[in-house]
Structure formats: C-alpha cells, structure tokens
C-alpha cells in the first residue's frame, strides 16, 4: 500500500503532476492545494476555475493511476499527523513526511 501527497501549485502542470504520481504506483492520493489564497468553493470566476481544475485533476489521477483520491487539503496544518510514503509536486519528488 502506498500513500502519496500531491502538492498542487498554481503554476504547475497538472499533466506533469499526474505523470509523477503514476510513476509511484500509489494506492491512495491526497491532494494539497498549497496556495491558501484560492478557495475552490468561492462563487467567483477564479473559484469556479479552480474548482473545475481540481475536478479534472482528481479524475485524471484516478483514471491514470487506479489510485483512490482520499482527500483535498488547503494547508499543511490540516495534514498534521498524516503519513505519506512519497510527496510529489511543488519541488518534484520529496521524501515522506
């Protein structure tokens, strides 16, 4: 069983992130939206665009990897106490927390 934390940045390529995740053959993926200034639940154009992006990303992760996306976090604080085998995104592959 492998758990991956995927860190989503505002400027990162979603396709590249999905590819990095797929290379690790995860069973479960948690997505961290690193930019806390954006809220996918906002009903403004930026919030709707982010919500659409996240929906496409989560679907792509599940379809490409066969992993289950178990959650979406808005800050590292929300993940306190969670353990991951690998962290991808932000600055590439990182060691586990």
Protein traits:
single chain; 97 residues; alpha/beta; four-stranded parallel sheet; globular
Question: How many helical stretches?
Answer: 2
Largest sheet, if any? 4 strands, parallel
For the termini, the CA-CA separation is 16 Å
Poorly predicted runs: none
Mean pLDDT: 85
In total, the number of strands is 4
Notes on the protein architecture:
Helices cover 32% and strands 23% of the residues. By secondary structure, the chain is an alpha/beta fold. The chain has one domain (3-89). Helix 1 (14-23) runs parallel beside helix 2. It starts with a strand and ends in an 8-residue tail after the last strand.
Q: What is the gist of this entry?
A:
The chain is of the alpha/beta class and 97 residues long. The protein has one domain. It has helices spanning 14-23, 45-65; strands spanning 3-8, 28-33, 68-73, 86-89.
Write the layout of secondary structure elements.
Elements: E1 3-8, H1 14-23, E2 28-33, H2 45-65, E3 68-73, E4 86-89
Parallel strand pairs: 1-2, 1-4, 2-3
């Amino acid at each position: 069983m492998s758990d991956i934390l995927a860190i989503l940045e505002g400027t990162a390529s979603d396709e590249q992130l999905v590819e990095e995740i797929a290379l690790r053959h995860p069973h479960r993926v948690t997505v961290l939206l690193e930019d806390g200034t954006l809220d996918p639940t906002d009903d403004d154009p930026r919030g709707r665009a982010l919500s659409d992006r996240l929906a496409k990303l989560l679907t792509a992760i599940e379809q490409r990897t066969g992993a289950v996306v178990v959650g979406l976090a808005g800050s590292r604080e929300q993940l306190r106490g969670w353990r991951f085998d690998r962290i991808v995104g932000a600055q590439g592959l990182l060691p586990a927390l």
